[in-house]
Structure formats: C-alpha cells, structure tokens
Amino acid sequence: MLQPSSLGVLALIVLILVSVWGYLAFRRDLSASRQRLRGTSRVIDTACGPIEYAETGSGIPLLIVHGAGGGFDQGMELGRPLADQGFRVIAMSRFGYLGTPLPADASPAAQAAAHAALLDALGLPRAAILGGSAGAPSAMQFAIRHPDRCAALVLLVPLAYKPPEAAPSAPVLSPWAEKLLAAIVGSNAAYWIAARFARNMVIKRVLATPPQVVRFATPAERARVSRIVDDIMPISSRAQGLLNDARMAASLTRYELERIKAPTLVFSLRDDLYGTFASAAYTTWTIPGARFVGYDSGGHVWVGHNEEMIAETALFLKSHSRLSTAP
C-alpha cells in the first residue's frame, strides 16, 4: 500500500504532467489561431489610417462590419455564403481589432468615417452595408452621415439604443456575470481554458446564446457555433476593440434614425441574451420603411436560422435597384 508521502508525490507528478499538457495544448491552439489568420487579409492606407480587410466574390459591393470579439475573419464567416449569391463581400476589421489600430477617436461616428474611407481606397462610390451586433452602431452612422454612399442597410442582432421606458427583452447582467465575462475575455489563456473546459458557459456568456438551443441544433449549425467560439482566438489581438466596444455599449445614445433613407432590414431573436430584440424593434420602427424579421429562439448567433437569414438578406439586397456601383 502506498504511504501518504508517496501518494502526495504521485499527485504532484500528475499535477505537473496535466499542467505541462495543458500549457502545450494552449500554445499549440494559440499558434494555430494565429496561423489561420496569416496571409488572409491585407492592410490598406486610407484617409482614416490603416484598415485591415479581406474580400471575396464579385457583383454588388457589400461591406460587412463585424461585432464584438470579431475582425475581418468574423465578417468573412458571414460573408462567404453571400459571395456565393452574387455579392462582392468586403469584410473589414474595426478599430482595435486585429490589424486595424485603435485611434484616439474610435466612436461609431469615427468608425463610419473609416467605412467611407475604406470604400474610397477601394474605388467604390457606394455599397450596401451589413452591421452585426457591435458593428451596428457604425453601420447606422454610415447610413446617416453618408446617405449617398449607403445603398442599403442590414442590421443583425444590433447593439442599439432603446428608450428607457421600453421593456428590456433580456435580464440585465448581474455584477457577478459581468465580472465573469470580463475574466473570460481578459486573456488568451483565460479564454482558451473557458472555451476548452466550460464551453457552454462561453456560449451563454460570450455568444449570449442559450446552450440548449445549440444542443438541439443541426450538425451544421453546431459546427458553425464551434467555429465562432474557436475563431475568437487570439483574443489578445482583439482586446483593444473589445474594450472600446464595452465603452460604446455603456454610453449608447439615440441616433437620428429618421434620417436614414437607405432600404433597411433588421434581424433579432427573442432569446438573445444581450437583449437586442427590444432595441432592434425600436430601431426598425424609427427608420422610415425599415423591415423587421424576428425569431423566437436562436440566441445572439441566430442558431437554426443562418441559411434562412442569408437567403433573406440576399433577396432583400438584390430587390433594390439602387444597389449599383454608380453614384
């Protein structure tokens, strides 16, 4: 029989081996995440500074503006199916994400100016714009400030203002939940550990999606959610953008949505744990002629509705004759 001292030594050896395995696995996955991004984008000089972007497809120009924790790669995940349907997809990294530096002014209005500057650098007089989640404020500002350049506007689960008297569509995060979320996204190691060993927590807290929705989804949808979770790495390359988005979310103000003239389509889901359903509905009612598409379940990453939403978006964009590259 092993003596207590021997058991202690054995436990220490096991702990060391597990720690070494964990460290090596973390370094391998971190390296793979960086390798995945290498050579898949370019940085172009614009009037608003360097902007990273990638593009695919040909046809109607469509600028995709990613959400929190994203970058051009998140935009490409959404944009590739649209490229297959006749769009020139341009997916950019917003301020503070991946290869786009964070300037002193990284407000939604400044980001909208950067969207216009990117189109200038690419020789595009106008484009449709799709803003997802935390990319929606700058997409709306682009439509307001550059009406002649915005051919159409699509908002997916938008981070947007709602009046104080409007009922929220999701509970406000508790201080404990806010601290947990901040800890998860606080470093590559913390995020990797959470994504590896507490995946449902990441789905719930980071993707703001009920885990049971993912559990009962199709294999293709579960694979898409897994890609979204995994592709947030390396989170350190997105940290400045995440912090800026957190500041933006804490200080949302009402935009002059009545000034938006572009055809507008808005999507949201009732069980989005970030509560975008209420603000998306208000946004739709305020933008003249906007159309709202809402679903009861699917969470913030619209589980179970991806193909339907892609098809709806493509049909909407193609149905508007204003969508041309001519001014």
Describe this protein's structure:
The protein has twelve helices and eight strands. The mean pLDDT is 93. The longest helix has 34 residues. The chain is of the alpha/beta class. It is globular, with a radius of gyration of 21 Å. Helix 6 crosses helix 7. It is 46% helix and 15% strand. Strand 7, helix 11 and strand 8 form a beta-alpha-beta unit.
- Relevant CATH superfamily of the largest domain: Alpha/Beta hydrolase fold, catalytic domain
* Uncertain regions spanning at least 5 consecutive residues: none
Query: What class do helices, strands and sheet pairing give?
Result: alpha/beta
Mean pLDDT: 93
DSSP strand tally: 8
Provide the helix percentage.
Answer: 40-55%
Name the helix and strand elements from N-terminus to C-terminus, one letter apiece: HEEEHEHEHEHHHHHHEHEH
Counting H and I runs of at least 4 residues, what is the number of helices? 12
Q: Which architecture name of the largest domain does CATH use?
A: 3-Layer(aba) Sandwich
